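If you are new to this repository, start here. Below is one unmodified record pulled from the training split, so you can see the exact layout before writing a loader.
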Amino acid sequence: MSELAFRKIREDILNGELQPDQKLRISILTDLYGIGWSPIREALNRLSTCGFVVKREQQGFYVASVDEKGLVELTNARIWLDEVAFRQTFCGETKEWEERIIIALHRLSKCYPLAEDVDKNYSKEWRELHRNFHSELVSHCGSEWLINYCHQLFDQFTRYRLIVLEKTHTGKKKKRREEKEHSDILSACLARDVDRAAKLMALHYKLSTEIILDTELELLENPLRVVRRS
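And here is the target side for that same chain:
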């Protein structure tokens, strides 16, 4: 029941049903999900370790805030961890990994939103396939710690993305060719070009962050990182 509560609350935070800074009253959540007090509290404690929930002294649990500084930090953490994962992956045998990422992108390519729907929220199916593709990209690095951190950062970024997609009016977001971005990353991985793969991934994250913040960012190198344009 604790696992079920964790998944339900996490999903509602991701899809915006539970808003940033909203107080999470255990009594209300037990009624909402039909789950007991103890599993709900255990789930909230677990979510606080993942960064989705914060526990304030003498005040209880709240949905974690979102802000520009936090998003830029999150983007850079993803860039750095993915580069490490790529370098570790390319040190070993990659045949099985290559097959998995090809299959993952093929499945994702069947689910892209139509061009005229670019300003609409992506479906849950697309989000799951998108997450699976990015998960497969780091899955062969040989470190469960690193893989889990990459998953956690991906989910946090998805939260920012969904909040903005929900609030942004039609036509206000940049058009992008996300399918090509993913395809280019895959090609660099298959060519075992770690520098290109890492940079393409950084540019991919940079564009997503620019769309969310509605501002221009600059990609710096050594190390790869994004900063606001001066």
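Two things worth knowing about this chain: Strands lie at 23-24, 53-56, 60-63, 217-220, 225-228. The radius of gyration is 18 Å.
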